[in-house]
């Protein structure tokens, strides 16, 4: 599988799972079907839009290939039809972690394609992972959850995954690098969710 093909698959998967998380937040806020679809789609494509802007890709990929928008709409509708899925916190957390990992890795690969340095790749990968959630929270009038996740490792996990992809991109094949990047994000989120890893907090 080529780098372009890998990016395509990662984008589709990331858009689907982030659409679910955005739609579940919309359902919590008692939005109607239209609102659920809009918030699901914004969450799904927000991070990718930031990635495309930073890597000079215009227009954004979802406008050049409507498959991505259809996948986002499908994810939102599935969440609307099966709202009980949202009640399972572990399920929602798993979807969120999956989306974070997929977009962090795809963002890192996009940065590598543009020959960015290590900090550029980390920056693009991290914003690609957390951007959709930030836009989602702002739209519903909430402080972005990435800023106060009870000291959990979240954006840091995306940064670590992006760094992993960068360090391995010229040492292993594309698929192996992607899988290891995804593994790092998922592992850090798992350890953090269980209280083994926390970010320090300065008490006032």
From TrEMBL:
<feature type="transmembrane region" description="Helical">
    <location>
        <begin position="151"/>
        <end position="169"/>
    </location>
</feature>
<protein>
    <submittedName>
        <fullName>UPF0126 membrane protein</fullName>
    </submittedName>
</protein>
<dbReference type="GO" id="GO:0005886">
    <property type="term" value="C:plasma membrane"/>
</dbReference>
<keyword id="KW-0812">Transmembrane</keyword>
<keyword id="KW-1133">Transmembrane helix</keyword>
<keyword id="KW-0472">Membrane</keyword>
<comment type="similarity">
    <text>Belongs to the UPF0126 family.</text>
</comment>
<feature type="transmembrane region" description="Helical">
    <location>
        <begin position="118"/>
        <end position="139"/>
    </location>
</feature>
<dbReference type="Pfam" id="PF03458">
    <property type="entry name" value="Gly_transporter"/>
</dbReference>
<feature type="transmembrane region" description="Helical">
    <location>
        <begin position="6"/>
        <end position="26"/>
    </location>
</feature>
<feature type="domain" description="Glycine transporter">
    <location>
        <begin position="94"/>
        <end position="169"/>
    </location>
</feature>
<feature type="transmembrane region" description="Helical">
    <location>
        <begin position="175"/>
        <end position="192"/>
    </location>
</feature>
<feature type="transmembrane region" description="Helical">
    <location>
        <begin position="67"/>
        <end position="85"/>
    </location>
</feature>
<feature type="domain" description="Glycine transporter">
    <location>
        <begin position="9"/>
        <end position="83"/>
    </location>
</feature>
<keyword id="KW-1003">Cell membrane</keyword>
<feature type="transmembrane region" description="Helical">
    <location>
        <begin position="92"/>
        <end position="112"/>
    </location>
</feature>
<dbReference type="InterPro" id="IPR005115">
    <property type="entry name" value="Gly_transporter"/>
</dbReference>
<feature type="transmembrane region" description="Helical">
    <location>
        <begin position="33"/>
        <end position="51"/>
    </location>
</feature>
């Amino acid at each position: 599988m080529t780098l372009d093909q890998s990016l395509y698959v990662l984008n589709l998967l990331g858009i689907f799972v982030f659409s679910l998380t955005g739609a579940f937040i919309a359902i919590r806020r008692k939005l109607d079907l239209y609102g659920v679809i809009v918030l699901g789609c914004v969450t799904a494509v927000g991070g990718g839009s930031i990635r495309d802007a930073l890597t000079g890709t215009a227009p954004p990929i979802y406008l050049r290939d409507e498959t991505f928008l259809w996948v986002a709409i499908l994810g939102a509708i599935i969440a609307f039809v099966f709202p009980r899925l949202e009640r399972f916190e572990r399920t929602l957390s798993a979807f969120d972690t999956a989306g974070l990992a997929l977009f962090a890795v795809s963002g890192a690969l996009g940065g590598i394609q543009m020959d960015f340095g290590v900090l550029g790749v980390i920056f693009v990968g991290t914003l690609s992972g957390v951007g959709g959630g930030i836009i989602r929270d702002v739209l519903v009038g909430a402080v972005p959850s990435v800023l106060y996740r009870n000291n959990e490792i979240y954006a840091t996990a995306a940064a670590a995954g992006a760094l992993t992809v960068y360090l391995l991109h010229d040492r292993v094949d594309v698929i192996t690098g992607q899988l290891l990047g995804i593994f790092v994000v998922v592992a850090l989120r798992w350890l953090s969710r269980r209280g083994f890893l926390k970010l320090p907090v300065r008490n006032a």
